[in-house]
Amino acid sequence: MKIKILIAALILFSSFAIKAQSVKEVNYEQFKPYLNNPSDTVYVINFWATWCKPCIEELPHFMTVAQDMRHKPVKFIFVSLDFPKYKESKLIPFIKENVINEEVLLLNDPNSNFWINDINKEWSGAIPATIIYRKNQRSFFEGQVSYEELTENIEGKL
Amino acid sequence: MKKAAVLLFAFVLSISAFSQGYAPGDEAIDFKLKNIDDSYVSLKDYDSAKGFIVIFTCNHCPYAVAYEDRIIALDKKFKKSGYPVIAINPNDPVAYPSDSFEKMKERASEKGFTFPYLFDETQEIAKTYGATKTPHVFLLQKEKSKLVVKYIGAIDDNYQDSEAVKEKFVENAISSIVDNKDVAVNSTKAIGCSIKWKK
Fold it and tell me: Thioredoxin domain: which residues (chain A) (predicted)?
């Protein structure tokens, strides 16, 4: 049991150590803990893709807010829904080019009919979509989120 | 003042009811939209059809592109049994130039679409139906003079790989209708590209 915890801690630790520009590929089961982190931090989880124009339009707001709030307990996680076969040719070059220093995950799980509802019953599956949560306080947005909405919502949870 | 507030409330309610779109069991409206051959297409033109596989789709979206061959296969398989595919592009070509009417013509000829590919220029039909993304399927059944929504959602359960599909949602729904059974899975969800609404 202890060994399991140690291994889990190691994996967790190493995942923090790997900074941007390496993208972890996860299925829904592996991704789910990111939606339920019990810590005091406010988590901003943004579902996006490199080909999604409205996602790319709102990305600068997210980067600015992440920069503004770098001394606060706020963590941004960008969950890419790009096709896994384009990870090396499109996703990683995009992350480098746009200097995304926040964590990026690639959600590779075709069973979206299950996980879209499991993430939020209100979500139609269109992206962008954003979850902002701290413990049990949770907000969900389908569609773009403005700089103001984002700031206000995060501050409301801090 | 109070009256105005009540009116406003009713207005907001009616808008939110409108933006909800259809649910399975609802009656769907017909439309008259421009096809890539420059003719206008309405569902009432299809006398012998028993129903329709209405698919909101587009050129620019990788998820829609991933389904193109499967949409052609659906049309080939079900047109003869009375359920043709009717594809509709609801996107604003100002936001997505590759979704313009001209580009629709190009894509349809490149891929050899066997079905009408209509342009919902005012976006009224997508809004009324409640399409939010591409691809987004609405399976309609003719019941007397009505068009009844039988299924809403994805084509199948694997957008990445047609070989790995376990459940063919649209095909299963049509089989159930043809066998006079209730559609067991009448709504599903899938990731798709948000429809860009005109401002």
Answer: 7-158
ipTM above 0.95 for this complex: no
CB pair distance less than 8 Å for A116 and B189 = yes
- CB-CB neighbors (< 8 A) of B133 in chain A: 124-126
Query: pTM (2 decimals)?
Result: 0.85
Give yes or no for a contact between A94 and A50, defined as CB atoms under 8 angstroms apart: yes
Domain total of chain A? 1
Distance from CA of A48 to the nearest CA of B (A): 10
Looking at the complex, report in whole angstroms how far the Cα of residue B140 sits from the nearest Cα belonging to chain A: 20
Q: Which residue of B has its CA nearest to A48?
A: B193
- Residue numbers of the domain that contains B78: 23-194
Domains: count for chain B: 1
The length of chain A is: 158
Residue B154 lies in a domain: yes
Q: What is the pLDDT of residue A17?
A: 44
